[in-house]
Specification:
Length: about 475
């Protein structure tokens, strides 16, 4: 049972004071494991399916899409369920069960899906990913809802998201930067994939359980109003225009980003022919992203969250467009101790990594912070937040976009002639590689710019004054 259902001294129920660093750390660390489950399958499952199981790219995209479609229903249901039970049991049981089952499902995706037929392997992977995605909802939806119930202060909620973003960045470092090089460092075969799955699955379980157990007695904002039916709760969401605008913004934005995520492994394998640089790229990106968090926290206070979000998003689009010009390095520009020779293209990759780390961590963090603002806005408007349902629908839309991205990527890759294989990667034509580069550059840029047009209508009240200015 969490502290939202226990008797606490009056001073413990004050949610207008700064949160302790210990609480922020206990909240944030769970995102490390969550990020592993969110990113590693998104990045490596298409690569695993097409180069180890012989699944065609278009079918690999569908394997990811089908479980995500279910989450459109599952996430809001989990959110409503956790809203109803939080007064009696708190959100801790959801977090614990979700952490354990998510981690086990992650391991199974890369160890229990090989068969004699690519179609059977695709079906088995889809089924296991369906189970794992459902389990992840048990963790991710209540986890996101808790952020809106830790403080009344919008800037304090940005602090919460800064800590979450730090651990999210570390999750990317492990789930993307370590996972693929680990697989290929161990030979790129079944043994490498199995070791990667076991190591990352264990890390995900431990970090998610630290959050689940560590937040069990942290006091949360609560209301005693009746939540009503799920339809009534969803109907209330329909009256919250700022939330709907933010939801649409993130949906469009994330589709393009997810398409890019899908081909990260292919970019370094085929377009750059430098898988070895992935850990260094992710390390640079992670370090820059973490170092920039205090800056964006300051700018969000000075400019407002909305303006800071637009600036970060526009800068991200600019640097992402430059990926269109990548190709394998043909020179040696500099030699770094412990790294070796780097060509001009390698150095440009690292420069892009630093810039992306700074701006990507900003607009992702700020979008989540604005989500908590819209939930608090609902609480102030009607006296009942239903943060679980709000978080559930937001999470469902995010996961839907990260399912549509791989479908888009699979269709583009198939259209450009990508050749699937079993037992390892095979050579691809220049046209197929060009399709991969488009998915990593101009396509995400286009969706990012469309999302900013949608976001231009974001306001938190009829007078147009954003909550971050309150």
């Amino acid at each position: 049972m969490d502290a939202s259902a226990t008797q606490l001294p009056p001073q413990a129920n004050r949610h207008d004071q700064p949160l302790g660093t210990s609480v922020l750390l206990r909240y944030g660390i769970g995102q490390l494991g969550a990020q592993v489950f969110r990113d590693t399958p998104a990045v490596l499952l298409p690569l695993f399916l097409t180069t180890m199981l012989g699944v065609q790219p278009w079918l690999a995209g569908l394997v990811v899409l089908v479980p995500k479609l279910w989450l459109i229903v599952c996430d809001p249901l989990v959110g409503a369920w956790s809203d109803r039970l939080r007064g009696k049991f708190g959100r801790t049981p959801f977090l614990v069960i979700g952490a354990v089952l998510t981690s086990l499902a992650f391991v199974s995706l890369f160890t229990l899906t090989k068969s004699s037929s690519p179609m059977i392997s695709a079906g088995l992977t889809c089924f296991l990913f369906f189970l794992g995605s459902t389990a992840f909802s048990m963790f991710s939806v209540p986890y996101l809802a808790i952020a809106a119930a830790l403080s009344h202060d919008p800037h304090e909620r940005t602090r919460i998201m800064v800590f979450r973003m730090v651990f999210s960045t570390l999750g990317v470092l492990v789930g993307v930067g370590v996972a693929q090089p680990l697989v290929y460092g161990l030979g790129g075969g079944d043994f490498g994939w199995t070791v990667m799955a076991l190591v990352l699955g264990a890390l995900a379980m431990v970090t998610m359980l630290v959050t689940a157990i560590g937040l069990a007695r942290v006091p949360l904002i609560r209301d005693d109003a009746h939540h009503g039916t799920l339809l009534n709760q969803l109907g209330a969401i329909g009256t919250n225009k700022p939330y709907l605008i933010l939801l649409a913004t993130c949906l469009v934005q994330n589709v393009g980003q997810a398409a890019g995520y899908t081909v990260i492994g292919f970019i370094y394998l085929y377009a750059l022919q430098a898988v070895w640089i992935v850990p260094l790229f992710i390390l640079v990106m992670a370090a820059a992203g973490i170092a920039a968090q205090p800056l964006w926290l300051h700018l969000s206070r000075q400019w407002g969250k909305e303006r800071a979000y637009v600036v970060a998003s526009a800068l991200w689009a600019a640097v992402t467009a430059s990926w269109y010009f990548i190709h394998p390095a043909t020179d040696v520009l500099v030699t770094l101790p412990g790294v070796g020779p780097l060509g001009t293209q390698h150095v440009l990759v690292l420069v892009r990594g630093a810039i992306i780390g700074v701006v990507n961590s900003a607009f992702v963090m700020l979008s989540l912070s604005m989500l908590t603002d819209t939930i608090d806005y609902q609480r102030r408007r009607v006296g009942l937040a239903n943060e679980g349902v709000f978080a559930g629908l937001f999470s469902a839309v995010e996961k839907l976009s990260f399912a549509l991205g791989p479908v888009l990527a699979g269709l583009v890759m198939s259209g450009f002639g990508f050749v699937a294989s079993t037992g390892g990667a095979v050579a691809q034509t220049p046209r197929a590689i060009h399709g991969i580069i488009l998915l990593y550059s101009l396509i995400p840029v286009a969706t990012q710019m469309i999302s900013l047009l949608i976001f231009s209508r974001y306001r938190l009240d009829k007078g147009g004054a954003p909550l971050s200015a309150v």
